[in-house]
Write a structure and sequence with these properties.
The protein is 48% helix and 16% strand. It has 13 helices and eleven strands. It has helices spanning 4-32, 98-101, 111-119, 133-145, 162-172, 178-193, 195-211, 239-259, 272-277, 283-292, 302-308, 315-322, 332-346; strands at 35-36, 43-46, 50-53, 58-64, 67-73, 79-80, 89-96, 123-125, 150-157, 263-268, 298-301. The chain has a five-stranded parallel sheet, with helices on both faces. A hairpin with a 3-residue loop joins strand 2 (43-46) and strand 3. Helix 6 (178-193) crosses helix 7.
Length: 348
């Protein structure tokens, strides 16, 4: 019979051998199987608009939460369906943050991908996680001025988190804040040196979070901590300045598009916190509806359409139906809903 002391030695030796193998061969093994084990490594700095996807990614195993998904980017770092040939001229371009990127989903299941398939239009997705109006402006100006791509119509998915992301960029001239940088560096260190260990720990953490936590205490569902809270919390810090900061960048984008004979449309939609705490006629909706007067080809109000479903659904059921469990983003059904709203608004 194995004594506890001997068992401890065996476990220690096994763990040590695993870490040694992981340190030497872990990255090579995961690369061989195409596993993108760290979300941040698929993004690369860009001198012209801060950052973007890396070029020419092709993987069946990009990791988001507890799932793997198919991810492809073209030579310009645009997420696409892994099949289409690159074009220079498009009818519609989409730009936004992680919701527009369709994080955690293959292109075909995102609202941009579904819209493209159902309309058969030439569509390009310029969206990347954590983008905000200052980058929308920088990226679009660069792509057009350098004649990299052309399009007739730009749809901007203005996310609720854009307010704080854009303000952070104004304050720090960077796309992360100090606390995020520290966490990012620790993650990078572990992921780069012990990638298999990092992936396993990430999966275990997500599994425990989803399966064993009855009432998920996550920031995107916290009344104050979520980045959508500015729309309903009274006396939100520096709110007028933060709103004006966004509007300034969006006005500059509108002027640039008008000068280049490109139509602008704005898309808005709710977070889970919006469904839980906000109202249909929210400040968020009011701001962008007013902005669009005499500027936008279409103001696409997906926000109100989700709220109308509350007439026949409970809040928790609506959130379960359209959002990824334990995550702030739309699931496939949520993306499908957005694609239908886009088609109804842009079919002319």
């Amino acid at each position: 019979m194995i004594r506890l002391k001997d068992l401890s030695k065996i476990l220690l030796i096994t763990a040590s051998l695993f870490f040694i193998v992981d340190f030497i061969f872990g990255e090579k093994i995961l690369k061989k199987f195409g596993v993108i084990y760290l979300e941040e490594i698929i993004r690369a700095p860009n001198d012209n608009y801060q950052y973007s996807f890396q070029s020419n990614i092709s993987s069946d195993y990009a990791v988001w939460g507890d799932t793997y998904y198919r991810l492809c980017t073209d030579s310009r770092g645009f997420k696409f369906n892994c099949l289409d040939e690159e074009k220079k001229n498009y009818q519609i371009a989409f730009i936004g943050d992680s919701f527009t990127e369709g994080i955690g989903l293959p292109f075909e299941k995102t609202f941009v991908g579904q819209f493209k398939k159902k309309t058969n239009l030439d569509v390009v997705n310029l969206g990347v996680a954590s983008y905000s109006p200052s980058i929308y402006l920088q990226k679009v100006k660069y792509l057009i001025n350098k004649d990299i791509i052309r399009f007739n119509h730009l749809v901007v998915g203005l996310d609720l988190t854009d307010l704080e992301d854009d303000w952070s960029r104004k304050k720090t001239n960077d796309f992360t804040n100090i606390s995020e940088k520290k966490l990012f560096n620790y993650k990078i260190f572990l992921a780069k040196n012990f990638p298999t260990t990092y992936l396993i720990l990430k999966k275990i953490k997500w599994y425990i979070k989803i399966e064993f936590t009855k009432n998920l205490n996550v920031s995107h569902l916290d009344f104050k901590k979520n980045k959508a809270s500015w729309s309903y919390i009274k006396n939100y810090k520096n709110l007028d300045e933060k709103i004006n900061n966004q509007i300034t960048h969006m006005n500059d984008l509108y002027v640039f598009l008008r000068e280049n004979d490109i139509k602008l449309s704005v898309l808005i939609y709710p977070h889970q916190a919006s469904i839980k705490f906000d109202k249909q006629d929210s400040l968020y909706k009011e701001i962008w509806k007013d902005f669009c007067i005499n500027k936008c080809f279409k103001f696409i109000d997906a926000y109100s359409i989700f709220f109308k479903e509350l007439e026949k659904n409970k809040k928790k059921d609506l959130m379960k139906k359209y959002y990824i469990k334990g995550d702030p983003h739309f699931n496939e059904k949520g993306n499908e809903m957005i694609s239908k709203i886009l088609i109804n608004n842009l079919k002319d």
